[in-house]
User: Fold this.
Amino acid sequence: MSDPEVLKAFRQRKDLKKYAHNALLLYALQLRYPIEDIDTVATEYLTDGSNDKKADLVYVDPESGDAVIAQGYMSQSRREGDTAPASKASDLNTAAIWLLSRDIEDIPKRIRSATEELREEIKEGNIGCVEFWYVHNLEESENVKGELVSVKEGAVYNLEERFQGQISVQAREIGTNKLQEWYEGARNNILVSDKISFDAPGGYELESENWDSYDTSIKLKDLKRIFDKYESDLFSANIREYLGSRKSDDNINEGIKRTISEEQENFWIYNNGITALVHDFEDKEGKVEVEGMSIVNGAQTTGAISSADTELGENARVPIRLVKCNDESIVSKLVKYNNTQNDIKSSDFRSTDYVQNKLRSEFEKIPKAEYTGGRRGDHRDRIRQIPNRLPSNAVAQSLAIMHGEPVKAYNRVSDIWEKDDLYQKIFNQRTTAKHIVFAYSLFRKVQDRKDALKALDEDEATPAQLDEKDFLRERGSVFAICYAISESLDSIVGRKIPDRFDLRFKDNPSPEEAKIYWEEVVKYACAFYEFYKNHFSGQLNSRSQADDIASELRPRIRMADEDQFSKFSEKLLTH
Assistant:
């Protein structure tokens, strides 16, 4: 049996091999979400192991409003007609019960921090959709589909019982067909390839050498019908999918829903409309038929319309512009320029500023390192391995930790790119490629230590290793440890550091080589987990938690042997 193209591409991802049977699960997550730094996601969100209550991964992303609870399965021999065991799908019922409804004191240590984070983000209204995934490398089946219906029904009940809020629940079987769809969408921008028709009162067409467009309007009820069928697949070319609706006056999606409820007849004049990329379009006298569709601007409008409680009338419409274009450079600009006026100012739009241009130039002199200068990468960058590339978000996170923003680094990384004051705090004229290597290598070294402890067989680990492992399971603990080390650098090097932006290594190492320099520092800092855990549980959600850990570490650094960190200090430049 020949493998589909997506599995061939997956096998080329050598960076995922270290995650063994979880590798395909992570690949699926990266196909679905704009995740450039899959290693940080794996370190923070993989829970797989004994007593994980059937949740191999608990991914919580308050920025997208999604949570993914996943179970993975890899068949070692694929044959025609083989399907994945349905029992693995039913295991997600166990995961749903433990994560959503059991008393927190009964939750095993392996998943307790993940459970606390998931529940807290749902309670705060930051999660609008919880998805249960069964990811495998075989064909989808009716047996699995039936089990996932039960998973969804049980999760809906548990969410309503505990949170009394309107949380969307999806249960997906992600086998070779779905993986291939996502893979094609990542490569081709337009994931929905069906023919779609809707009523339209006429419109006008514009043609150019490189594109054609058609402007008309669509009924809100037709837009909802299309979204209900295809869901987020409809946004495959968009920078950001539907962000969810949160009950705050300044939230654009809540405002759209209010307009639908109170002034539906005025929706046309209040809303800027939808722009959709299509393969083809045709006006058929009162109807428009399109082949393929991806909404590149208007995801928030579409999602808000579809989640509104109000009945949609026949006369409620929104403008829509259909664009047919095969020029990738124009499509890229279409997506970018259609989003610059919205609530999207990501790293993609910082990539041309002076600091990022300077850093790109400086990184040409760093061995075995590539930095794209703030561009997080398009869909295609996420389906293949790019050796030696430093993910833009991981760079931003490591700098934010080093310069006093560990909480933003952990759960609000988009703020670093979007908020001018925060961006300028860490990306400014003093920021250098060598300083990035210094901060980034610390971040990766602590992650490596957590991963190494996670990989230990619990029957062979020492009690101290098991206790340290328990602490590093806490969501955000890596960020807190890195922050504590950065706050203790004066004591580590034995002299005052006037400006942390001056910190760099003397011999211009690659990021991988620089990780070695941190070995003794990280090992020493992580040894005091017993004192840290009194200040930290669940997740990193306040600066005071990180400050408390730093206050535990600093005096212990000062009590260390005089030559404890001498090798590290010898490698360092501080001015």
